[in-house]
Amino acid sequence: MKKKFFAIFFLVIFSLVGFFLINQSSKNLTPENIKQIKIAGQNIKVILALNAGTQEQGLSGKSGLEENSGMLFVFEKPSKYYFWMKGMNFPIDIIWITEDLKVSYIKKNAQPESFLETYGPDTDIKYVLEVVAGFSEKNNLKVGDEVLFTY
Asked: Any residues with CB less than 8 A from the CB of 39 and at least 6 apart, and which?
């Protein structure tokens, strides 16, 4: 009887500890805690654009991006978000990502001179990643590829 009691006791304790650890780790899985993105086999360190002000500014006025770095736009809800190159000083690849973390659309090598054009998919997305021009081609990124966030 004692062995059965201790077995049940340890099973309950183990379950509670597991539940606690899972619950604690999920609290850190918020957009504000995203540090990197793994996409096309590459780890990209990201600057986050979480609100309207930072999203409107984006990379405008900056002189460039380092290799394996980018800006991640995180929107409150999935929708159609279009981007343009107003105020940009360098070309970029723009990658639209769905809520289930799949590449939905890629604009390769968007040029600053094309600031009157807008780019974007006809599907709802939740995230947009801007990286150095040529990243998508160099790493064979394709629509449908999976994306992983690192916290």
From this structure: 95, 103, 129, 139, 141, 145, 147, 148
Write the Ramachandran bin of 114: left for phi over 0, alpha for psi from -120 to 50, otherwise beta: alpha
pLDDT in tens, 14-29: 555 555 444 444 445 5
pTM, to two decimals: 0.80
Q: Which structure tokens are listed for 136?
A: 């998508």
Residue boundaries of the structural domains of the chain:
1-30, 34-150
Structure-token pair, residue 69: 């770095």
CA distances from 44 to 14, 36, 74, 77 (A): 36, 5, 15, 23
Superfamily of domain 34-150: Protein of unknown function DUF192 (2.60.120.1140)
Distance in angstroms (rounded) separating the CA atoms of residues 94 and 104: 11
pLDDT digits (tens, 9 = 90+) for 34-91: 889 999 999 999 999 999 999 999 999 899 999 899 999 999 999 999 999 999 999 9
